[in-house]
Specification:
two-stranded antiparallel ribbon, 215 residues, Rossmann fold, 2 domains, 36% helix, alpha/beta, 6-stranded parallel β-sheet, binds magnesium ion, 8 helices
Length: 215
């Protein structure tokens, strides 16, 4: 049996250049906005009450969110049928294009495997034509493996505090930046700005990344 290399094994990283490891949903893509429109078309509504996904899905007029199995089903359907309609985060493509002149860029997403082809197309369409690693679970071990492939400095960008913590544990030398693209989610996102730099605006984030990666 022929073993296909995993995304992580196949991902080329320049051995001396700085490295940017970047999440997609709510970082490069306006996930909540796109997912909200998708579930509206299926007769549900998204209420931005907390930093959660399935607990924010309601039937119109109801006060209890839908059960988690239904929420998971909508999430899976979205990645199959709806994720190509996502809007990119403002300024993200320009920021990465600028950084990529001197740094490697790797996209590290926890999108489900069945959404791979749609995700690849979406990334290309919106100017994010960089190596894609589909991850599952905590991202720290993957960030550690990628950052070990270069002698240069590395930075990791994600919206989720547990992922930033995972990278802090597994790869403490990697710079950590939290970005939340959706303005409604920003005040709700758990954060720890002492441990992980919080910047929600791509041009400002790009400047901070430049300082970190090209001192
Ligand atoms: Mg995300």
């Amino acid at each position: 049996m022929e073993l296909r290399p995993t995304d992580l094994q196949a991902c080329a990283v320049h051995p001396t250049a700085p490295l940017v490891i970047v999440d997609v949903d709510e970082v490069l893509a306006q996930f909540m906005r796109g997912f909200g429109l998708f579930i509206e078309r299926h007769g549900f509504e998204l209420r931005i009450d907390r930093y959660a996904l399935f607990q924010n899905i309601y039937r119109p007029g109801e006060t209890e969110h839908v059960d988690l199995i239904l929420g998971r089903g909508l999430f899976d359907d979205f990645f199959r049928d709806g994720a190509e309609d996502l809007l990119p985060s403002i300024g993200a493509a320009d920021a990465l294009a600028g950084l990529s002149r001197r740094a490697s860029v790797v996209i590290l997403t926890n999108a489900p495997e069945h959404g791979r082809q749609a995700r690849v197309r979406w990334l290309k369409t919106h100017g994010f034509d960089y190596p894609l690693v589909i991850n599952s679970g905590p991202k720290g071990p993957s960030a550690a493996e990628l950052s070990a492939r270069t002698r240069g400095p590395a930075a990791f960008i994600d919206d989720l505090l547990p992922q930033l913590e995972s990278v802090a544990q597994a790869a403490p030398a990697v710079g950590r930046f939290q970005m939340v693209a959706d303005e409604r989610l920003r005040p709700l996102a758990p954060c720890d700005p002492i441990r992980h730099t919080r910047i929600d605006d791509w041009p400002a984030l790009a400047a901070a990344l430049e300082t970190r990666l090209f001192p």
